[in-house]
Amino acid sequence: MSGLDQARQKMTEAGVAPEAIEVFSHYYGQLESGATGLIPEDTISPLTDPDRLADVEISDTDQQAALARTVIIKLNGGLGTSMGMEKAKSLLPVRGDRTFLDLIVSQVLAARQAYGVELPLLFMNSFRTRDDTLEALEPYGDLAVGDLPLDFLQNREPKLLVSDLTPVEWPDDPSLEWCPPGHGDLYTALLASGVLKALLDAGYRYASVSNSDNLGAAPNAAIAGWFAASGAPYAAELCRRTKADLKGGHLAVRKSDGRLILRDTAQTPPDEIDYFTDQDRHPFFHTNNLWFDLEVLYQTLVERKGVLGLPLIKNVKTVDPTDSSTPEVIQVESAMGAAIEVFDGSTAIVVERDRFLPVKTTNDLLLLRSDSYTVGDDGTVVKAVEAAPLIDLDSRYFKKIADFDARFPAGPPSLIKADSLTVRGDWTFGTDVRVEGAAQLDDDGRTHTIPDRSVLG
To the nearest 10°, the Cα dihedral for 435, 436, 437, 439? Predict the structure, then answer.
């Protein structure tokens, strides 16, 4: 039995949706043919002059009408394992007991009230995040809209041995034999779950999609109005790059056909990373906030039998990501933002930086919990300083959330007058500590506690 046949059989026996199996088979064929998914610099031209939200003028009536036909979708499959979490990352507290999930719900409920719209909220969960997420949503009895569910499930697929492209077997922990297909699975999961058809039947036309750890991506009627007026089938939100934005994907124009495409780090040839990180050459980065027309998506998926044909991302890891001695495997992935090249007439819009506040590390979490930002009752997160300070915490002591919390027992220090905070070594912060200017704590091999009401800087 071929590697593909083995993989298809394994997925079928595990109850994976037929549409997801066909998508996986599509990518498997690319792997067999030697595809790398790389996008060389000489095949693209930089995107230099996209629309800007600041220049858009949409009437209040048109904004409300567009938002009334919009659904908010949050990607919520991540466990926050890089922070040592075993539950959905969105269950992390941000302010007091209020979690990412609580603030997302507050943003949606506030938008419903402000615009008089139903505005469904859906989470794309993984098998590992679903139960905890739905339990956390139980107190919000009025959150569901009509018969629409609150979530749908991301698919899963087998990891493939690099040596022969057969599904890996790992009896010590069979769960490690599986991986998510990347957030490009969003479209397949929407179709296979029946949620896409249910949304269309309920009269919804547009989707606004973002990561659940990005609290900047609140419902936005102005962007909804712009997108509806554009007539575009798909749009990406972009931000201008800074020196801190070296890893995020960027849009470019493919020379061969003039289409907008997304290029991620993993799709850049290793010897061309300098082009990828050049903020002058590629001045805008992809926020992973995107919009699409539900009708066009449904028609396209039906025509293509569930396979959009997003570009392959070939991710090589070890079967146990925490043990580099375990066999090398390929995780076949795709990025949801890559759908920009699938649809004729796709476009992009440059938004302000406050639409992009992702929390990928405890550095980001410290900022969000600090007085550098204010969090409103409506869940909106607003920067309280002109420029957020740069945070660099020693990963040996602050990377895992339990270690991080233990070193800030009284909460984060005041950062409203800070330019930067660099911590090297094992430091615990007392109560009412303030950082002013540029502060650095050095490692002398000992454990330290910063006294209450200290001023660093």
Answer: -30
Q: Are residues 51 and 179 in the same domain?
A: yes
**How far, in Å, CA of 8 to CA of 38, rounded?**
26
Range of the structural domain that residue 273 is part of = 3-355
Mind giving me the DSSP string for 401-420? HHHHHHH-TT-PPEEEEEEE
Q: What is the DSSP letter of 425?
A: S
Q: Identify whether residues 30 and 142 lie together within a single domain.
A: yes
pLDDT tens-digit series, residues 363-421: 999 999 999 999 998 999 999 998 899 999 999 999 999 999 999 999 999 999 999 99
What are 133-145's pLDDT values in tens digits? 999 999 999 999 9
Can you give the pLDDT at residue 85? 83
Regarding whether 290 and 210 lie in a shared domain, the answer is yes
Residues 6+ apart with CB under 8 A from 387: none
> Closest Cα partner for 339 from 241, 202, 233, 450?
233
Residue 409 one-letter amino acid: P
Model pLDDT for residues 419-452, shown as the tens digit of each residue: 999 999 999 999 999 999 999 999 999 999 999 9
Give the per-residue pLDDT at 407.
98
The three-class DSSP label of residue 266 is: helix
What lies within 8 Å, CB to CB, of 347 at 6+ separation is: 50, 51, 230, 232, 234, 235, 236, 260
Q: Say what the pTM is.
A: 0.93
The CATH number given to whatever domain includes residue 432 is 2.160.10.10
Place of tokens 């609150």: 150
Confidence band for 322, pLDDT divided at 50, 70 and 90: confident
**Domain final residue, candidates 355, 370, 404:** 355
Q: How far apart (Å, rounded) are the C-alpha atoms in residues 309 and 342?
A: 8
Cα–Cα dist 59/62, whole Å: 5
Distance separating the N- and C-terminal Cα atoms of the chain: 65
* 342 and 385 belong to one structural domain: no
CA distance 81 to 360: 11
Q: Which residues contact 385 (CB under 8 A, 6 or more apart)?
A: 372, 415, 416
